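Appendix C: a fully annotated inverse folding record. The material below is reproduced so that readers can follow the format used throughout the book. The structure is listed first as tokens, followed by the designed sequence.
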């Protein structure tokens, strides 16, 4: 599609920006619009996904039919089936009459399912049947209904993680994802940030009847450098705040800084080669990261002990200072120019022994070992590195939790701070049945 056509579509639907990813998404929406293929629009919250189902509907043969947008995440789980597919009178408490659902109302048109990743599994099975055959059954009815709707879905959920955790049906994902459209986040559109700010500032100036705010050069640089986790929605809200609160219409970097939330900084070390199987959310993920860090630290300490042991073994023939008869201090001499390491002190060793007394009562008395014996122990001691994998530790924790709760998996899952579904999967994976 030529750029002039894309620009006309942007003007019609209020889309601002010239980023390559944004233009590509609009181009795909126009190409797929004349078909009846299902479309899945993905992107972070606040990127403007709601505009693309309208583009698809307006450029399709269904443009004269109804267009219904449904926020699946805002409907309670107990009523979502009734809202989508309708219900019969008396189907549940409060069902005083028959009611058509959104799929019946959107017959011959387009239905936009926003936040489709939040649907419960039972509703996902019903939706899959609609996609495959166009059939559905009202709640409380046994009669099969037919509908002819084009489904466009949107989500900010990572489907790979949701499918792995059993929160979303894989077969439904492939049916919805016939044509994927990905909307880039605002941080990947740095040239569009200033354009959006100017547009929002002009809109609020007109709305509140005041001069439009303007950014200084340093403020503009700060605006573009910010990561914008809330994307366009966050930028619009901050622009409105500044337009109302600030009396000075020239916004400097210092003024802008007061309205930008601190950018989140992860203080945990980055782990290479560690695959997160829990979707990166909840306590389970953080615990696994901490375990890995502790194992790495333990390995480093073990390697350091081995290094010290090897150096002491090599220098066994060097003079040794004896500050006391029961303690030996070895000074590790470094090459010239190197920072001197602190002395390694071998503390006195006391070995408890059992001596029979006259009254036949065992008493324990400490026996001091000489410095030569200490050195001999140091020279002959082996430092064995324990390589415990994360999977082995996790398996052992699950086994002990099951033993503590006598095989009751629900209690064991609560003890481990994980869901029962995750625990079942781990039990099967580690062969703990």
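Designed amino acids, in order:
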């Amino acid at each position: 599609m030529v750029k002039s056509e894309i620009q006309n579509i942007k003007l019609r639907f209020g889309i601002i920006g010239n980023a390559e990813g944004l233009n590509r998404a609009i181009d795909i929406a126009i190409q797929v619009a004349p078909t009846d293929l299902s479309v899945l629009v993905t992107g972070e919250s606040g990127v403007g996904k709601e505009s693309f189902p309208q583009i698809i509907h307006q450029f399709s043969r269904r443009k004269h039919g109804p267009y219904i947008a449904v926020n699946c995440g805002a409907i309670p789980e107990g009523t979502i089936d009734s809202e989508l597919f309708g219900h019969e009178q008396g189907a549940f408490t409060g069902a005083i009459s028959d009611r058509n659902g959104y799929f019946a109302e959107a017959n011959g048109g387009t239905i936009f399912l926003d936040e489709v990743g939040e649907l419960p599994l039972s509703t996902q099975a019903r939706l899959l049947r609609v996609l495959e055959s166009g059939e559905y059954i009202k709640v409380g009815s046994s009669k099969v209904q037919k509908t002819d709707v084009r489904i466009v879905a949107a989500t900010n959920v990572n489907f790979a993680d949701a499918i792995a955790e059993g929160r979303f049906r894989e077969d439904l994902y492939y049916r919805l994802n016939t044509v994927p459209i990905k909307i880039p986040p605002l941080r990947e559109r740095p040239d569009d940030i200033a354009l959006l700010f100017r547009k929002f500032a002009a809109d609020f100036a007109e709305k509140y009847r005041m001069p439009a705010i303007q950014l200084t050069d340093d403020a503009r640089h700060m605006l573009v450098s910010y990561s914008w986790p809330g994307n366009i929605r966050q930028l619009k809200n901050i622009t409105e705040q500044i337009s109302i609160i600030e009396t000075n219409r020239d916004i400097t970097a210092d003024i802008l800084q007061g309205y930008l939330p601190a950018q989140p900084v992860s203080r945990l070390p980055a782990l290479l080669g560690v695959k997160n199987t829990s979707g990166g959310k909840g306590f389970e993920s953080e615990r696994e990261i901490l375990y890995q860090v502790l194992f790495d630290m333990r390995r480093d300490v073990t390697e350091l002990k081995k290094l010290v042991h090897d150096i002491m073994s090599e220098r066994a023939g060097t003079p040794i200072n004896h500050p006391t008869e029961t303690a030996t201090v070895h000074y590790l001499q470094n090459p010239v120019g190197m920072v001197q390491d602190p002395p390694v002190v071998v503390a006195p060793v006391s070995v408890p022994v059992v001596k029979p007394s006259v009254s036949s009562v065992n008493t324990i008395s400490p026996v001091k070992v000489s410095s030569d014996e200490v050195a001999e122990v140091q020279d002959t001691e082996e430092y064995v590195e324990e390589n415990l994998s994360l999977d082995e530790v996790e398996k052992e924790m699950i086994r002990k939790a099951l033993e503590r709760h006598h095989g009751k998996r629900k209690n064991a899952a609560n003890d481990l701070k994980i869901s029962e579904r995750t625990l079942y999967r781990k039990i099967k994976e580690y062969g703990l049945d």
